[in-house]
Design goal:
Layout (H helix, E strand, L loop, with lengths): L1 E4 L11 E8 L5 E2 L3 H8 L3 H8 L9 E5 L8 E6 L8 H16 L5 E4 L8 H15 L17 E4 L7 H26 L7 H15 L2 E5 L1 H6 L3 H7 L7 E7 L10 E6 L1 E5 L19 H16 L4 E11 L11 E3 L5 E3 L7 H14 L4 E6 L3 H7 L4 E6 L1 H14 L3 E3 L17 E2 L8 H10 L7 E5 L5 E2 L9 E2 L4 H10 L1
Parallel strand pairs: 1-7, 2-5, 2-6, 6-7, 10-12, 10-15, 11-12, 14-18, 15-19, 16-17
Antiparallel strand pairs: 2-3, 4-5, 8-9, 9-12, 13-14, 16-19, 20-21
Length: 499
């Protein structure tokens, strides 16, 4: 899909459609003002008539399609409801752009032009629009044959921006492409079935991406993992015929300042999670191909950073394994010795993500990372707490976490700070080992999981993102297909660039 700056007046653009958005008011009537008023004049007052009749209300993501509008060279005019102006943000702009693309694509449109409101003709708004378009253009129907739709959007033009801002807007478009394409790279990985994305296959895909992007890569096989005494990762992997991998991808800036931070992005990559001996219910288990979502996120972030080139060193450390109930699988009550030397009593083999993250974090520190962020589809407890709306965000020190939360707000991803008080540490103490892999008692499962990971962090600034509720859409949204979301890619790119 080509996305480009277009300097023509909107009335002269001969696209299949022009997309604009209209705000609503308390009387449930669209506000025909600003850009909407310009379109109304070009269309001979039809927009105002639709608003007065109650057909055009400006309600969020309401779609009103006019065919062959008088005064416009375009074949269609699509008006998207933007809701109340006081609640409008770039996050809503992304959704509007995405919803418009999916609406038009489903109707066979091949090209359209997007005309933002006058106040949104900035480079930041252009970046948000393009990110929304690219996110919406992803489809999860890779393996469909008869039902697969061949409808596609070939070209989108951005209208209304001042000619003097061309260079700035085109730079924003390129930034958005780097981020959006990388987000979709992650989503493609998450969408793969586990027979087509084993740990070794994931490592091969990561290697191909790294070579194409000009990034350094090191893949640890089971022999090197054993030599490094990564007992927690090996304990999870031992029930599977598929051997584990530890994937390390590194971005180095052209000029590195002495004492600059090294950011380590650690992502859980369980390519299929049966739960092991503590096996999951059969209902919905097919979704557990997505349990490598944290790892896919970190690979996507490094792919984007290879283009955007932050001034700090960044590495992704991705432990990849299956969690299977084979004859050699670890059992509840087993004790594993992590790379750090800490002993772990395995109470529940379905609490495996925190085990592989423990060794990955220890290894990231060994490689020189001074700051850490991990992402994982870790707990059902975070879904109970936050549903599919917010990512659960834990971290120490709080100032470090606040910087990431500010990035999340800036890019329109919802993350909520969670407590990590010392009282929760008592819940993961074991009678026969240093710690246990699930908390005692019934509550606080997402917090005790975070505390388990924190045991391996020591004093390193660290953030844990539990994306279990937000990494997958069970139902399609107007702006996104059903399936993987790529959540946290945009936030982590912004966070790394600002560090």
């Amino acid at each position: 899909m080509q996305i480009q700056f277009e300097a023509q007046p909107f009335s002269a653009v001969a696209a299949d459609a022009i997309v604009a958005y209209v705000f609503g008011d308390k009387d449930k009537q669209a506000r025909i003002e600003g850009t909407a008023a310009e379109l109304d004049r070009a269309a001979g007052g039809k927009l105002k008539l639709l608003a007065e009749s109650g057909e055009l209300t400006g309600k969020s993501l309401e779609m009103s399609l006019l065919h062959f509008p008088a005064g416009l060279a375009a074949k269609r005019l699509l008006l998207v409801g933007a809701g109340k102006p006081e609640k409008f943000s770039h996050a809503e702009l992304r959704k509007i752009a995405g919803a418009a693309l999916r609406y038009l694509k489903s109707r066979g449109v091949k090209s359209f032009a997007f005309l933002p409101a006058e106040k949104d003709r900035t480079s930041a708004a252009a970046q948000a629009i393009v990110e929304g378009l690219l996110h919406a253009n992803f489809e999860s129907d890779t393996y469909q044959t008869e039902k697969k739709s061949n409808k596609s959007i070939d070209r989108v033009a951005l209208l209304g921006f001042a000619a003097a801002s061309r260079a700035e807007v085109e730079a924003a478009i390129e930034r958005a492409k780097a981020i959006g394409d990388s987000e979709n790279f992650s989503r493609d990985l998450i969408n793969e079935p586990s027979n087509r994305l084993t740990p070794r296959m994931l490592a091969s895909r990561a290697e191909a991406m790294a070579k194409e992007a000009g990034l350094e890569i090191d893949i640890l096989d089971e022999k090197r993992i054993a030599e490094l005494k990564m007992g927690a990762l090996l304990g999870v992997a031992q029930g599977s015929e598929e051997p584990p991998r530890m994937i390390v991808i590194r971005y180095r800036p052209a000029q590195k300042k002495a004492g600059a931070p090294i950011l380590g992005l650690v992502g859980k990559a369980v390519t299929f999670d049966t739960g092991g001996i503590s096996i999951k219910p059969a209902d919905g288990m097919e979704k557990m191909k997505y349990d490598m979502g944290g790892g896919a996120t970190m690979l996507g972030v490094l792919r984007a950073l290879a283009v955007l080139k932050p001034t700090i060193e960044v590495m992704a450390v991705v432990p990849a394994t299956e969690n299977m109930p084979g004859g050699r699988a670890q059992k509840p009550g087993d004790v594993q010795i992590a790379m750090s030397g800490k002993s772990i009593e395995v109470i529940n083999t379905d609490a495996e993500g925190r085990l592989i993250l423990a060794d990955a974090i220890t290894y990231a520190k060994k490689l020189g990372c001074t700051h850490l962020v991990d992402a994982a589809t870790l707990t059902g407890a975070i879904v109970v707490a936050l549903a599919d709306v917010h990512v659960g965000a834990f971290g120490t020190p709080r100032e470090y976490l606040d910087r990431l939360l500010e990035s999340a707000r800036a890019v329109g991803e919802k993350m909520w700070p969670m407590p990590i008080d010392d009282e929760y540490e008592e819940m993961i103490k074991s009678n026969i080992a240093d710690i246990r892999n699930v908390g005692s008692g019934k509550g606080g499962g997402a917090i005790t999981a975070a505390w388990f990971i924190k045991e391996f962090v020591d004093d390193t600034p660290w953030i844990h993102l539990d994306i279990a509720g937000t990494a997958w859409l069970d139902d399609a949204k107007p702006w996104a297909a059903k399936g993987p979301t790529g959540v946290a890619v945009r936030t982590l790119v912004d966070f790394a660039m600002k560090m």
